[in-house]
């Protein structure tokens, strides 16, 4: 079974960026597994500039990992 | 189709920095897709020193990735 | 004796992500060893968007380490 | 034309550190292009310990990139 | 004389994680050398979720350094 | 003339850690050059747990750079 993260390899940089977002969200979900609570919190932080920037920071760190894994798609 | 991120390779460091900014903004946009909401939030954080410094931090992490991808344009 | 961290090597990326979460929690536990206090704090931060995003950031940094250790499971 | 970032290569570590600061400031400037607004904000954050530490963090990440680009000036 | 940091090399990942914690604490101690003040602050931040997560982040960055130094104990 | 940062190379890990602290402080000093203002701010943040942890984070990032520069003193 593949699970939610079968590989860090993606075909394109864009797919790699989407995977980075998935990792960032999974990092939240593993701490707060309730879909309902996360949906409620989402309503708050998606209109909070600081939280959105912090989210983008987590995506950036994960994208760094995925880009390295893919040899930067060169 | 190329999409928004066809490659991490840029001709110059300056173009790489601009791409780092694009990645940082895309990290926000993927969480808050509404152009209208993001425009409103922008009005707030662009006059908030802490938010601007945090934004620059996200750009710095993304630039690290892009610079590595480009062999530091040496 | 193996202890809590016998190795950074995991069979799959998914197991590596789980190990990254374990490292993040151990980083907290080493500063606050009381199970009771941590359980109480968990009740607070698991409904706090900022804290959840910050947790995901710690996981992201640890995952970067573990992914590198595993040659990105290529 | 050279632009503001012709190269990541510097002659000395010290010049590399100055370039890291330039990148950090450019990360802010690209989000807030108004010299007047940035000057006003500067008056606030240059007497705010948290903002100064956060600024130093951005410089540190950029310096990491530049130091790697320069083979650590070894 | 060995001092407090004779080497980044440790026998096991677990010892490496403990060293990462030591580095994180030393980073605080060098700015606030008073044992008494640090003990007082510890009473505050060890029951503050945000501070504990931030501490875990510092440990994660230091562990990244130590893991690389040890070739990831492979 | 050597300036304040003649090299990233140090004889020992401990000297490398001290250099990381120097870089962190220089990152602040370049934004707030006034010794008097920095001394005043220091009186505030050296008794603030969050600021001390954030400082330790900046040191950790700089130490990562310096450790890599020194081949981890292996």
What does this structure look like?
Six copies of one chain form a homohexamer. By secondary structure, chain A is mostly helical. Chain A has one domain. Chain A contains three helices and no strands. In chain A, helix 1 packs across helix 3. Chain A is globular. Chain A starts with 12 loop residues before the first helix and ends in a 5-residue tail after the last helix. Chains C and E meet through helix 1, helix 2 and helix 3 of C and helix 1 and helix 3 of E. Chains A, B, C, D, E, F: InterPro entries: Hexamer_Tyr-coord_heme_pr_HTHP, HTHP_sf. Chains A, B, C, D, E, F: This is Hexameric tyrosine-coordinated heme protein.
Kindly state the mean pLDDT of chain A as a whole number? 96
The succession of helices and strands of chain A, N to C, reads HHH
What ranges of chain A have pLDDT less than 50 throughout 5 or more consecutive residues?
none
User: Which descriptor suits the 3D outline of chain A?
Assistant: globular
**Amount of beta strand of chain A:** under 5%
Largest sheet of chain A: none
Rounded to an integer in angstroms, the radius of gyration calculated over CA atoms of chain A is 14 Å
Helical/strand content category of chain A: mainly alpha
């Amino acid at each position: 079974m593949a699970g939610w993260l079968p590989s860090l390899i993606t075909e394109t940089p864009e797919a790699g960026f989407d995977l980075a977002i998935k990792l960032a969200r999974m990092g939240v979900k593993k701490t707060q597994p309730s879909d309902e609570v996360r949906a409620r919190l989402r309503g708050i932080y998606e209109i909070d500039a600081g939280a959105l920037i912090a989210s983008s920071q987590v995506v950036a760190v994960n994208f760094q990992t995925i880009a390295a894994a893919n040899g930067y798609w060169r």
